[in-house]
């Protein structure tokens, strides 16, 4: 998975005075499940539409296997797209919907029948050939839309928030199903979502975007554990983001106390952001911790309690499996490896 199949080079796109993509460059590898993740308006869907050919960039180029496809119309590009609204034909049954693109290509009836049956088996809809589209559940319709896209054997499948219309349970089931399909076929998936958990669950690579700029690209583990800036830390899961000052390599001050950390390469007395995940703050007995606090609220989240704890300088969000009463006085411990330091450059502003 080390060969690039698609390269976006210096893509810029604006609508009137609104710059949607700002000199964006991105490489996507063959057989990769890559997710474009970010809030509404960050440019992720525009990026997908430019790859598909539904939008033209104002400047820049798109390469496919090293060759420019910027001037190719959508039907000439080796990609297919699955939208949030599946755009299935209601007057056709499941078989006819999936076979539609193959008929346009003028394949023989035998070839069409073989390919449709193979793809129906892949998406676990083998017994649904003659079913009317409107009789299917949301999850079944989504599988038909995916099958219709995959039956044309694209080298890249583009998915624009295809799980957005599903209920939570079905959405989680389909996340795993989509990943299985991608691994079985070994083709490149480019997936758009604003759902952080969805991105972390499904992706080989996540690209976090905001205001038309890539904030960070990396594996789900890297994005979560080593966010590049405060925007990524705040957007991917919950974080405590605290103002701090670097003392020297491996030492930082925040909440009026000096802590050991594992970061280096900053300037002495440099103002920085300290990021600490809620699950990385350990609760200990009062006065035995590095910091002390008072529990202000407790909410049960299923596998843990989410607490807001007031320390003298600020409030911390803490996740813990043990229940603590509101107004309890507790100590807080934070290990060096759980303190993440980042510069205060606001790339996303």
TrEMBL record:
EC numbers = 7.6.2.11
- Enumerate the GO terms in the molecular function aspect: ATP binding
Does the keyword Kinase feature in the UniProt annotation? no
How would you classify this enzyme at the top EC level? translocase
In terms of NCBIfam families, this protein maps to:
MMSYN1_0197 (NF043075), potA (TIGR01187)
Q: Which family does it belong to?
A: Belongs to the ABC transporter superfamily. Spermidine/putrescine importer (TC 3.A.1.11.1) family.
Q: What InterPro entries does the entry give?
A: AAA+_ATPase (IPR003593), ABC_SmlMolc_Importer (IPR050093), ABC_transporter-like_ATP-bd (IPR003439), ABC_transporter-like_CS (IPR017871), Mo/tungstate-bd_C_term_dom (IPR008995), P-loop_NTPase (IPR027417), PotA-like (IPR005893), PotA_ATP-bd (IPR017879)
- Is RNA-binding there in the keyword field? no
Q: Which gene encodes it?
A: potA
PROSITE patterns linked:
ABC_TRANSPORTER_1, ABC_TRANSPORTER_2
Q: Quickly give the catalysed reaction.
A: ATP + H2O + polyamine-[polyamine-binding protein]Side 1 = ADP + phosphate + polyamineSide 2 + [polyamine-binding protein]Side 1
Q: Which UniProt keywords apply?
A: ATP-binding, Cell membrane, Membrane, Nucleotide-binding, Translocase, Transport
Quaternary data: The complex is composed of two ATP-binding proteins (PotA), two transmembrane proteins (PotB and PotC) and a solute-binding protein (PotD).
Q: What's the protein called, per UniProt?
A: Spermidine/putrescine import ATP-binding protein PotA
Q: ABC transporter domain spans which residues? A: 6-236
What function is annotated for this protein?
Answer: Part of the ABC transporter complex PotABCD involved in spermidine/putrescine import. Responsible for energy coupling to the transport system.
